[in-house]
Specification:
- This protein is mainly alpha-helical.
- The protein has two domains: about 55 residues, Muramoyl-pentapeptide Carboxypeptidase, domain 1, CATH 1.10.101; about 120 residues, Cell wall hydrolase SleB, domain 1 (Arc Repressor Mutant, subunit A, Orthogonal Bundle), CATH 1.10.10.2520.
- A three-stranded antiparallel β-sheet has the order 1-3-2, with helices on one face.
- Helix 5 packs across helix 6, helix 5 crosses helix 9 and helix 6 packs across helix 9.
């Protein structure tokens, strides 16, 4: 075998080896992104809370994926006919009806959409109250009980009266654009609220039953 073919053969072997390593790395990276033993966060909290409602998880909702959570996931998977892995993969989350969104990027379209609902829902409110309305929208995107996109939360049926009473189509105030940018940058004056209401304008029993976190301007912000 001459030197040219030797070099070509070595090159092919090395390329195959690197491709295999890259494939294994990507697979490991994908598996690591799933909620499984050792994971923490909002998704784990949602898994624990939902499995507790199913009567399959008996521990505290801590947001840590320990042995009790893993065992509960295994029980659920067995009950629903899924591969029993103890890992909350996409199929398991889908049957648990859990969907966790990510904070939207501060693109011009997202800023404009968020500013429009802020302006419609908090016209005349103090600046912190406008940011707070934006924060509630974003908190819902991250919450398993709501749609996991900005548009999905805003246009969810019955969620915001301003979307169907005409206020959403009114000109957007300049302060609402600034408030949208601040909310998207992470400012949350509500401390994690997912509801808000003006007690003088609504008698909705569900809203009035929520735990109040803070009051800003005319709005109560609740969990």
């Amino acid at each position: 075998m001459n030197s040219f073919f030797k070099i070509a053969l070595v090159t092919l072997v090395l390329a195959a080896f690197l491709a295999g390593m890259n494939s294994r790395f990507m697979q490991a990276e994908h598996v690591e992104s799933l909620s499984q033993y050792g994971s923490r966060g909002r998704e784990v909290e949602a898994i624990q809370r939902t499995l507790k409602e199913w009567g399959l998880f008996f521990g505290e909702v801590t947001g840590f994926y320990g042995t009790q959570t893993e065992a509960a996931v295994r029980r659920f998977q067995q009950y629903r006919g899924l591969p029993v892995t103890g890992i909350a993969d996409a199929a398991t989350l889908r049957l648990l009806n859990i969907s966790i969104g990510r904070t939207p990027e501060a693109t011009e379209s997202n800023i404009h959409l968020l500013a429009r609902i802020i302006s419609a829902e908090s016209r005349g409110e103090p600046y912190a109250g406008q940011v707070a309305v934006g924060a509630v929208i974003l908190n819902r995107v991250l919450h398993p009980s709501f749609p996991d996109t900005l548009a999905g939360v805003i246009y969810q049926a019955g969620a915001f009266s301003a979307v169907w009473n005409g206020q959403f189509e009114q000109p957007v105030s300049q302060t609402s654009f600034a408030a949208a940018r601040d909310a998207l940058a992470g400012w949350d004056p509500t401390g994690g609220a997912i509801y808000f209401y003006n007690p003088r304008k609504t008698s909705n029993a569900f809203l009035h039953s929520r735990r109040i976190i803070t009051t800003i301007g005319n709005h109560r912000f609740c969990s």
